[in-house]
């Protein structure tokens, strides 16, 4: 009945099965007269999802998370991961051969400083690291008396005998119906920003920026419609896109050539060399531009100007067409979600469903919309202790039966041409415990605090992040991920530069779409996360002395009322009831009769007397049985 087309459940190679690769890799380092090497989880453009040919970290270590780094020295080797992946890495990596170390606090450079020896030669691939990352590595090497050595060819590739070929996904046109702004207008805005920066040219090293600027999409990586490519935008004259011609049809080539020249990827190096040879100042995105580009421009006599890619902020602020598309996409997605949630409530209590069943069913309901292009990331469906693994990915080996008394955490999203979605719901299977209700309600209160936030222009995500954590902090607990990330328009589900987190320094601007997803994870027991996408909008406040903003919630899916305890406040309850009224109003006409019945029950308003215990005076007038509720 159900099947998944866009995600698989095969167990990746890992553990001791890969240990021999580490020994072979060390032999290759000796052959190259290197005593160590740094292997990031990255491609040339620092994409979140990378082509199979770029999965060097996973191939060598077994770790398949979306962020990480490995360092191999002659006697030691370590895999560095952040808090999202600590549990996952421990299960995938041979811990006898690899240490598992923090990626953030302390950073890998601290580990290097303690393990490098004077005279060591630490290699790195300059196409897989940004210049800032290389500078940090160089500082650690200098401190230890070691040398940091750029390599021309990656030693992992030398021993990866069956490495897949680079991708050749077709480039498609993202038409005005969805994009809302012609390429020429976008280029005019980009050049205005370049003038402010005082540069002669801008390298678009982020394929998302290329896709947005020229209104194209592609199919080179999983879950994000990216055409892997570069672009060079001069202050004057036509831009150039560097993309493999085999990805282009006559139609897509004609679309691009209205505003830019098209050249092969290997033409980027001579083009930059020629431009830099004239002494040009060339802007590079510090977040995605490879260190090789900085080295190339500098050696040719140019001036690399590293900083924030101006396209990133332009892209993050959605235009009216993109905003309308996002609303339509979320409404469509919500119909699929309602059908799925009704199915889970009906079938899961029988005790026969598994996590894979849930993933396959949800993707099928989304495909039934007739508009699904891909899932926006592999669905996270974790029940019981698997729900406590923040970025859990179910496999045939880990697949767990959804048992009565479990919590099921399901985090999923879709790619539609008119918008990208991302939603998480935590579902009670059977009767939840008091501890589950307490933690869920604290997470919900934080979620509502973000949803109801009102803030002045200029506010950053870091200033709002505490709102989501306050009720968890009151119980002495927290969650080890950001509260929210930016979301693209039929692009990356994790889009910069804005985010709601302790590190979110970008100002939140009207038109940005972000996630609102606080959570709680009890190791080996259960996980909780509640996620909606929100749109930054203007808020009118009588007498306000400065422009004020708030959030419009885009996601439309019931929040499990069975997991809410009495600590929910009156204003919070009204917000939830209003949200559920809206969900019912927008979805009901698009559902079958059985799902309508489920939706009506799932969005039934919470009476305030259910949330707040009766007063002492009221209890005194009750009989013995009634007073049990006091």
Automatic annotation (TrEMBL):
<dbReference type="Pfam" id="PF01321">
    <property type="entry name" value="Creatinase_N"/>
</dbReference>
<dbReference type="Pfam" id="PF16189">
    <property type="entry name" value="Creatinase_N_2"/>
</dbReference>
<dbReference type="InterPro" id="IPR036005">
    <property type="entry name" value="Creatinase/aminopeptidase-like"/>
</dbReference>
<feature type="domain" description="Peptidase M24 C-terminal">
    <location>
        <begin position="548"/>
        <end position="606"/>
    </location>
</feature>
<dbReference type="GO" id="GO:0005737">
    <property type="term" value="C:cytoplasm"/>
</dbReference>
<dbReference type="Pfam" id="PF00557">
    <property type="entry name" value="Peptidase_M24"/>
</dbReference>
<dbReference type="Pfam" id="PF16188">
    <property type="entry name" value="Peptidase_M24_C"/>
</dbReference>
<keyword id="KW-0378">Hydrolase</keyword>
<dbReference type="InterPro" id="IPR050422">
    <property type="entry name" value="X-Pro_aminopeptidase_P"/>
</dbReference>
<protein>
    <submittedName>
        <fullName>Peptidase M24</fullName>
    </submittedName>
</protein>
<dbReference type="InterPro" id="IPR032416">
    <property type="entry name" value="Peptidase_M24_C"/>
</dbReference>
<dbReference type="InterPro" id="IPR000994">
    <property type="entry name" value="Pept_M24"/>
</dbReference>
<keyword id="KW-0479">Metal-binding</keyword>
<dbReference type="InterPro" id="IPR029149">
    <property type="entry name" value="Creatin/AminoP/Spt16_N"/>
</dbReference>
<dbReference type="GO" id="GO:0046872">
    <property type="term" value="F:metal ion binding"/>
</dbReference>
<feature type="domain" description="Peptidase M24">
    <location>
        <begin position="326"/>
        <end position="538"/>
    </location>
</feature>
<dbReference type="InterPro" id="IPR000587">
    <property type="entry name" value="Creatinase_N"/>
</dbReference>
<feature type="domain" description="Creatinase N-terminal">
    <location>
        <begin position="21"/>
        <end position="152"/>
    </location>
</feature>
<comment type="similarity">
    <text>Belongs to the peptidase M24B family.</text>
</comment>
<dbReference type="InterPro" id="IPR033740">
    <property type="entry name" value="Pept_M24B"/>
</dbReference>
<dbReference type="GO" id="GO:0070006">
    <property type="term" value="F:metalloaminopeptidase activity"/>
</dbReference>
């Amino acid at each position: 009945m159900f099947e998944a087309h866009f995600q698989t459940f095969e167990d990746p190679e890992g553990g001791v099965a890969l240990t021999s690769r580490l020994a072979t890799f060390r032999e290759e380092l000796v052959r190259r007269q290197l005593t160590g090497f740094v292997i990031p989880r990255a491609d040339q453009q620092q994409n979140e999802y990378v082509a199979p040919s770029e999965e060097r970290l996973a191939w060598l270590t077994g770790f398949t998370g979306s962020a990480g780094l490995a360092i191999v020295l002659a006697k030691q080797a370590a895999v560095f991961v952040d808090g999202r992946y600590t549990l996952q890495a421990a299960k995938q990596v041979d811990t006898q051969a690899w240490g598992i170390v923090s990626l953030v606090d302390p950073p890998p450079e601290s580990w290097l400083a303690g393990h490098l020896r004077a005279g060591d030669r630490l290699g790195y691939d300059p196409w897989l690291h940004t210049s800032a990352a290389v500078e940090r590595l160089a500082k650690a090497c200098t401190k230890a008396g070691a040398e940091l050595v750029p390599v021309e060819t990656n030693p992992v590739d030398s021993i990866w005998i069956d490495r897949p070929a680079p991708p050749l996904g077709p480039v498609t046109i993202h038409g005005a119906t969805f994009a809302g702004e012609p390429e020429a207008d976008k280029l005019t805005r980009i050049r205005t920003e370049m003038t402010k920066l005082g540069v002669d040219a801008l390298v678009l090293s982020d394929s998302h920026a290329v896709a947005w600027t020229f209104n194209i999409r592609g199919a080179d990586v999983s879950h994000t419609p990216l055409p892997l490519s570069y672009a060079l935008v001069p202050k004057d004259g036509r831009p150039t896109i560097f993309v493999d011609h085999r990805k282009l049809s006559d139609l897509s080539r004609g679309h691009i050539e209205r505003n830019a020249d098209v050249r092969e990827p290997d033409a980027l190096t001579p083009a930059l060399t020629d431009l830099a040879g004239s002494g040009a100042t060339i802007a590079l995105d510090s977040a995605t531009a490879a260190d090789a580009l900085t080295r190339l421009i500098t050696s040719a006599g140019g001036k690399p100007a590293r900083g924030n890619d101006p396209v990133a902020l332009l892209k993050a602020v959605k235009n009216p067409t993109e905003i309308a598309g996002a609303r339509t996409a979320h409404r469509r997605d919500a119909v699929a979600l309602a059908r799925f949630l009704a199915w889970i409530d009906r079938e899961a209590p029988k005790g026969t469903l598994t996590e894979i069943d849930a993933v396959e069913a949800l993707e099928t309901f989304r495909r039934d919309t007739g508009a699904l292009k891909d899932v926006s990331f592999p669905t996270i469906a974790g029940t019981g202790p698997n729900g406590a693994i923040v970025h859990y990915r179910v496999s045939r080996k880990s697949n767990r039966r959804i048992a009565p008394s479990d919590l099921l955490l399901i985090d999923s999203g879709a790619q539609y041409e008119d918008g990208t979605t991302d939603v998480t719901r935590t579902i009670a299977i059977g009767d939840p415990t008091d501890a589950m209700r307490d933690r869920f309600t604290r997470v919900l209160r934080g979620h509502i605090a973000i949803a109801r936030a009102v803030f002045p222009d200029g506010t950053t995500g870091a200033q709002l992040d505490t709102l989501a954590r306050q009720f968890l902090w009151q119980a002495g607990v927290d969650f080890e991920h950001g509260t929210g990330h930016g979301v693209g328009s039929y692009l990356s589900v994790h889009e910069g530069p804005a985010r709601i987190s302790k590190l979110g320094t970008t100002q939140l601007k009207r038109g940005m779409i972000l996630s609102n997803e606080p959570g709680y994870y009890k190791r080996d027991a259960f996980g909780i996360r509640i996620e909606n996408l929100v749109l930054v909008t203007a808020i009118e406040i009588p007498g306000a002395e400065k422009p004020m903003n708030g959030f419009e919630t885009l996601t439309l899916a019931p929040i499990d009322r069975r997991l809410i305890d009495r600590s929910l406040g009156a204003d919070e309850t009204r917000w939830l009831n209003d949200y559920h009224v809206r969900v019912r109003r927008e979805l009901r006409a698009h559902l079958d009769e059985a799902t309508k019945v489920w939706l009506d029950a799932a969005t039934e308003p919470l009476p305030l007397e259910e949330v707040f215990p009766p007063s002492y005076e009221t209890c005194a007038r009750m009989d013995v049985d009634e007073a049990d509720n006091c």
